[in-house]
Amino acid sequence: MSAPLVVLGNPLLDFQADVTAEYLAKYSLKDNDAILVDAKSGDAKMAIFDDLLQMPETKLVAGGAAQNTARGAAYVLGVGQVVYFGSVGKDKFSERLLNENEKAGVKSMYQVQNDIGTGKCAALITGHNRSLVTDLGAANFFTPDHLDKHWDLVEAAKLFYIGGFHLTVSPDAIVKLGQHAKENNKPFILNFSAPFIPHVFKDALAKVLPYATVIIANESEAEAFCDAFQLDCANTDLEGIAQRIVKDSPVEKTVIFTHGVEPTVVVSSKGTSTYPVKPLDSSKIVDTNGAGDAFAGGFVAGLTKGKDLETSIDMGQWLAALSIQEVGPSYPSKKISYSK
């Protein structure tokens, strides 16, 4: 059952639909953002899920950022190479997630909650933008002892990928994996995942950062990190932000900032490199939801295969390009192999 890549994140079922700018405005949402809502809070945004179930065009897609990345890595690596940890409810939604992971070749090590429903995410699409509204549900109840029960899988892994959204759930579980990775000299990849993470969960992020050997984020998340941690550079200076993260790190660290169709910025103690994104005709773009997750999937697959940094980044860009030609955070049903 062991696999070289272990992924930790929040498993969710995506409710995906095309909406209007007016619909976003109705719920005070931005056109390219990610927020959390809580069913217990009485937040008016919880009504979005009922809205979407009434829309005939709504698609239910297996989601959760790190789970998308796990399936993307498995698309490249094949069956049995990826283990995924997260918490779900005992319901039809988690069965759907389990089936999707099995089809993708991912081994799901779910912690199952008997009295809490599986988490869900409304992916509201406007053109090439997507606004994510998430009710974590059962995903919010993952506990570190679930890792203890399956520690043989942790010990057998060669590297770890952590979705930043899990910082809202169990930083202690992330630290537990981080300590193991540090003690055994294994790569530990952390994705910031959303701009609200550095702002709202700054303490949790600061607790986990020392263990990360690789950080992945997009330009909005980098800007949020710069503001939250009050770095002495412009919040649009991706290279400057990355340099400060690397400089302040107690471990050798590589920072990767994606920037849409702009070049990917990579900074380590060895210096700065940029990697242009290969252009894709706009007529081929179906859906950009999950593009960042796909990049991470291709990248960690490259590292798992022992590829160098440049090749791994190219694999990430390649898989992201494949994903945005599909509906939702998914990949072509007919396997396409990477070639540089």
Automatic annotation (TrEMBL):
Which cofactors go with this protein?
A: Mg(2+)
**The protein, known as:** Adenosine kinase
Provide the Carbohydrate kinase PfkB domain boundaries: 24-334
Going by the record, the broad EC class of this enzyme is transferase
Pfam families, alphabetically? PfkB
Q: Which UniProt keywords apply?
A: ATP-binding, Kinase, Magnesium, Nucleotide-binding, Purine salvage, Transferase
Q: What is its EC number?
A: 2.7.1.20
By its UniProt entry, which PANTHER family does this protein fall under? ADENOSINE KINASE
> Which protein family is it in?
Belongs to the carbohydrate kinase PfkB family.
> Which segment of the chain is annotated as a signal peptide?
none
Instruction: Write out the pathway annotation from the protein's UniProt entry.
Output: Purine metabolism; AMP biosynthesis via salvage pathway; AMP from adenosine: step 1/1
Which chemical reaction does it catalyze? adenosine + ATP = AMP + ADP + H(+)
Q: What is the lineage of its organism?
A: Eukaryota, Fungi, Dikarya, Ascomycota, Saccharomycotina
Q: What does this protein do?
A: ATP dependent phosphorylation of adenosine and other related nucleoside analogs to monophosphate derivatives.
Active-site positions on this chain:
D293
A single cellular component GO annotation: cytosol
| One example GO MF annotation | adenosine kinase activity
Q: Which gene encodes it?
A: ADO1
Which species?
A: Saccharomyces paradoxus (Yeast)
Q: Which GO terms describe its biological process?
A: AMP salvage; purine nucleobase metabolic process; purine ribonucleoside salvage
